[in-house]
Design brief:
Helix content: 25-40%
Distance between the termini: 79 Å
CATH topology of one domain: Nucleotidyltransferase, domain 5
Order of helices and strands: EEHEEEHEHEH
Structural class: alpha/beta
Largest sheet: 5 strands, mixed
Shape: elongated
Strand content: 15-25%
CATH architecture of one domain: 2-Layer Sandwich
Number of helices: 4
Number of strands: 7
Radius of gyration: 36 Å
CATH class of one domain: Alpha Beta
């Protein structure tokens, strides 16, 4: 609502001159606008999504149908392309290159490192350089992430984030095998006896 205040006045002035018209001052009643502002504020608060849930994209291979007669042989991959990362208790990572198989005389060196970004990133960069030198393409690096039951959920999220930061194109979640259980878990984490199915 707007009101016009014309002020006082009227009557004749000395000298017979016409009185000068006074400027009207406008006063706007803002009460209705305050109501409208609160109505709009309430509407936007109730209808706006404050934070959207974040989803980590993980590609999982299709399940093999046990009824199929023909078994599809998995593609052969050079062992030097494979980096295994076992996530253990107390934010520890046990990493090694290749396939751990003591029965074939293959027992690669197992590195123990923490989730410090510089250590983990440094290892990934080193492996990318080594794969690039050997196969002329750092994207050929394959990382197998194997979380134990003693690992924290946050560790899995952190290492998946690190894959994206380091631009590792091929990585997957996998289960530990019997050789890893006997050669790494019993040595590094003797208290972690039961840890899911073996492969």
């Amino acid at each position: 609502m707007a009101e016009l205040d014309t002020g006082g006045g009227g009557g004749k002035h000395k000298g017979g001159k016409k009185p000068r018209g006074k400027k009207a001052s406008t006063r706007i009643d803002m009460t209705a606008m305050v109501d409208l502002a609160f109505l709009l504020l309430t509407f936007f608060v109730l209808t706006t999504t404050i934070s959207k849930p974040n989803v980590l994209p993980v590609v999982i291979p299709p399940k093999v149908d046990p009824n199929e007669k023909e078994e599809v042989e998995p593609p052969k991959v050079a062992e030097s392309k494979i980096l295994n990362m076992i996530l253990g208790a107390n934010d520890q990572i046990y990493a090694y290159v290749g396939i751990l198989n003591p029965s074939e005389g293959k027992n690669p060196e197992v590195l123990t490192l923490s989730f410090a970004p510089d250590k983990l990133r440094e290892l990934l960069r080193e492996r990318q350089k080594a794969v690039k030198q050997q196969f002329n393409d750092e994207k050929e690096l394959i990382v197998l992430i194997k979380p134990l039951s003693s690992a924290r959920y946050g560790n899995v999220v952190d290492i998946l984030d690190e894959m994206n930061i380091s631009e590792v194109k091929k990585y997957t979640l996998a289960e530990i095998n019997s050789f890893e259980r006997s050669e790494i878990i019993k040595v590094k984490e003797p208290d972690n006896i039961i840890d899911g199915p073996e492969k």
